[in-house]
């Protein structure tokens, strides 16, 4: 596969977050680490790693503490706090932010007494948390609180979501993993669902993430290499209610942690390479409610939902990336299997539209639809919240000045 050498003055243009390291960080010796990680863990000591979304709305933070009792229910996990002035979420003079546990999962990183063949014997946990201020009100980056209320209000309809999370692997210098430095690899075509040393980059990392998600108890449905080299996708769901978004956030945390192990950055930038003919990265969401599953009748409900969505393009675009639409403008250009962010469109089996009805759904006259607009770095709480509000709760209006945003951010 021939590489084209070019000089690139512009590569990545992150709206919010970009990390690079000019100096390569020396990897630690895993053999030394294993000597200590495999020490027996006391039977009355358990580790809980608290995980939350920071002030960027897309990056995750975590810290771990020791507890003396086993925990199998999130109701038994105690609240904690952290310094919000160091995460872009508070001022220094009033910086304590509460961590409210909302979901727990098995920890695939710290195993009790080393490797265990039985996940049920590992009582170390990952704890997903909401963030609350000193008045016990959700922070501006806490979209889960409102989302949970919305989804509970339509619980009888069983709103079900499936996420297709695309991501890109980068070296620490911000360049795509496996690409020649400051140059392009061979053009797109051979990489999608690829097999081979020159086509599939870093499969070890991808497979490790797959197994770790399964161990943690997530509804991970599959993986595949994506169109741009060093880009991959995994799927979470179909999962009912708030659990779908919770699991997507935890799966992202696991992905970043495994990236640490390999010295590879995980980028959720919707358009990581803006020079050349390269696809972006999205987080398509597949959605249905009970009415859409009815044989012979569901397609009518799907078409009705699409009609509602067609009238709120600007509103949805503001909720589909953490920069309130700015990130996605770089990706949704009408090229590279995307529709234009300016216009709403839908069709059967097309990947150049806002909403796709899968061919099999059209044939069966029931099933689900795929919203292809959410960016790879979207907050799934925002996405599921606005989808349900529009489709199930019949909210109307298409405001792009921030008034429809519950936090009032512009």
TrEMBL record:
One of its GO terms (biological process) is glutamine biosynthetic process. Its EC number is 6.3.1.2. Belongs to the glutamine synthetase family. Pfam families: Gln-synt_C. SUPFAM superfamilies: Glutamine synthetase, N-terminal domain, Glutamine synthetase/guanido kinase. This is glutamine synthetase. Keywords: ATP-binding, Ligase, Nucleotide-binding.
